[in-house]
Amino acid sequence: MQEIPNKALVVIPHPDDGEIACGGTVAIWAKNGTEIAYVLCTNGNKGTDDISMKPDDLANIRSKEQISAANTLGVETVFQLDHPDGELEDSREFRGQLVRAIRSFKPEVVFAPEPYRRTFYFHRDHRIAGIVAQDAVFPYARDRLHFAEHEKEGLEPHKVKTLLFWGTEEVDADTYIDITESIDLKIQALICHRSQISGLSESDSTDWLRRWNREIGLKCGFEYAEAFRKVTFPV
């Protein structure tokens, strides 16, 4: 994939998922002028083994870490939906929140987690976020009579051109983006999520990510790459 859009929206189940999944692409696109927004679906308030940590305190920490990581990559807008970690549902409320974000931000490209993995277990929030995101893109954000209350607020229907699923099965990946020039920035952004790597050295917490993106790059002739399953819609 060579084309760089004017706007892109990244649907993220938990803080740090965006950096891991597509942080290299986000950094390159932002550097080249793409306006990028994150939709952070949950507040990540359960992701710890620290017995002294309270959910509200963790949510506050992870919110700040996510904003810092996003800014590191060049992302200035983070929509925080604040659902509790592990409690995303395929509901009208959640679908409407994603439709609202799409209609207000008007992206050409939306990134979302792959909901249909077969050989690797994905967190339930990832599966739900992916299913609801694809429905929000098509047809809900497109058709004005879905969530008609948005029209009263001045939000017009919007047609997304491309949906890129991250975390897809290797056999289903059909789109590769060269992130060789941004791999170091991607790792720097991941390090912003310090509550998730406490007790580990920076190399221990990030070397796996470098290896993973190198392995993807070997499949497509790049030093480092990110892989996606691409779905396009008529606009």
List the topology elements:
Blueprint: E1 7-12, H1 17-31, E2 35-42, H2 55-73, E3 77-83, H3 92-105, E4 109-113, H4 124-140, H5 149-152, E5 162-166, E6 175-178, H6 183-191, H7 202-220, E7 225-232
Helix pairs in contact: 1-2, 1-6, 2-6, 3-4, 6-7
CATH architecture: 3-Layer(aba) Sandwich
Number of strands: 7
Strand content: 15-25%
CATH superfamily: LmbE-like
Stretches where pLDDT is under 50 for at least 5 consecutive residues are none
Write out the strand line-up for the largest beta sheet, numbering strands in chain order.
3-2-1-4-5-7-6
Cα gyration radius (Å):
17 Å
By secondary-structure content and strand pairing, the structural class works out as alpha/beta
CATH C-level class is: Alpha Beta
| Approximate shape | globular
What's the oligomerization state? single chain
The helix content is: 40-55%
Task: Tell me what the structure shows.
With 235 residues, the protein is α/β, with parallel strands linked by helices. It has one domain: LmbE-like (Rossmann fold, 3-Layer(aba) Sandwich), CATH 3.40.50. 41% of the residues lie in helices and 18% in strands. The chain has 7 helices and 7 strands; from the N terminus they run βαβαβαβααββααβ. It has helices spanning 17-31, 55-73, 92-105, 124-140, 149-152, 183-191, 202-220, and strands at residues 7-12, 35-42, 77-83, 109-113, 162-166, 175-178, 225-232. It has a 7-stranded mixed β-sheet, with helices on both faces. Strand 1, helix 1 (17-31) and strand 2 form a beta-alpha-beta unit. It is globular, with a radius of gyration of 17 Å. The model has no long low-confidence stretch (mean pLDDT 94).
